[in-house]
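seq:
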Amino acid sequence: MPRPTTAPVRKALTSLDDRVELAVGFTVDRLWRDHDRGLLDEQTASVAAAHRSLSDAERSVTFYRVLLQRLASGEYPMDSALFPRIERTVEQLKEAVRVRGARETDLSDVLEPAEANAVRSPAGYPDLKARDIAMLLAIGQGAKLREHLLTQRLSVVTASGARVVQQDFTRLETAGLVQRDTTHPLHAGQPVTLTDAGRAALTARPSGRVTSRPAPRPGAWPDAATHTR
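struct:
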C-alpha cells in the first residue's frame, strides 16, 4: 500500500498547535505562510519546519487509521487475502505513530526556547505603520538600492516594481530593520535584505505570552484572505 502523498491540501491538526500559537503569537496558518515567504527569523522558522514535519506525520497516522477502519468495516470481502492486508496496515500504523511521537519530541525541543523568548522578550513593533510594513514586505521579496546618475539621489527598487525613497530607506536601515550589501557598487545596485529584526517586525509577534489567538493589530499586514498579489 503506497504512503499518502504530502501534497496538499489542508494541514493536519496536531497535539501541539496551541503551544505553537502561544509561542509565536499567531496562528499556524500564518506561521506556514510566513515561512513560505521567508519572513521568519531563524528560531521561528525552526518551529515552522518542525511543525510541518509533525503535521505530515499526523496525516500519515490518520491515513493508516482510516484504512484500517475500512478494512475491518466489511467493505472488503472477508477472505484469506484480507488478513495479511490488515496485519500489514497495523504495522504501518504502528510505524506512523512512532514517527509522530518522534516529531512531537522534535517540535517540543525547538518550542522550549521560543516559549522562553516569548515570555522574556517584548517583541513586535507597535510604532510601525501600515506603510512601513508594506515597504518591509516589498523589500523582503527582493530589492536593490540604486543611485540616480543625474541627481545622485538614492532609492530602493523592489522586485515588485515598488520604490522606497531614500528618506524611508534610511529610517528603516537606522532602525535595524533592513541592511544592504555594500560590496556591490551603487550604480549596479546594492542588494537590500531584511534583518532578523525586520522579519520579526513583519510577523508582528505581540509582546509577552498570549492566552488566545490575538486579534490583528492596527496597521498589521493583512492575512491571506485580504491580501492579494
